């Protein structure tokens, strides 16, 4: 269900998420093993909207656990946006 939630808020997430929050998400998701080093580096090279879009897509493709971790990290990194998106 978490991957479905992410799909539903994808456009809003891309519009709202800030660069510092994206970088925090990338750091934490690399640390907990959701992202590989090469995925992390590739995402960091992108502009903010593309980075946000591909981060959600990558987590969704990796399944429910990866999607849940993305939501959990977002709830810590930006609780306001997490609530506004209806993820928390």
TrEMBL record:
PROSITE patterns: CARD. One of its GO terms (biological process) is regulation of apoptotic process. InterPro entries: CARD, DEATH-like_dom_sf. Residues 1-79 form the CARD domain. Coiled coil: none annotated. This is CARD domain-containing protein.
């Amino acid at each position: 269900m978490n991957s479905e939630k992410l799909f539903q808020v994808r456009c809003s997430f891309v519009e709202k998420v800030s660069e510092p929050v994206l970088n925090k998400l990338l750091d934490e998701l690399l640390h907990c093993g959701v992202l590989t080093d090469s995925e992390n580096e590739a995402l960091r090279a992108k502009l903010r909207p593309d980075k946000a879009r591909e981060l959600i897509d990558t987590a969704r493709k990796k399944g429910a656990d990866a999607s849940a971790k993305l939501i959990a990290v977002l709830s810590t990194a930006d609780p306001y946006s997490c609530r506004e998106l209806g993820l928390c």
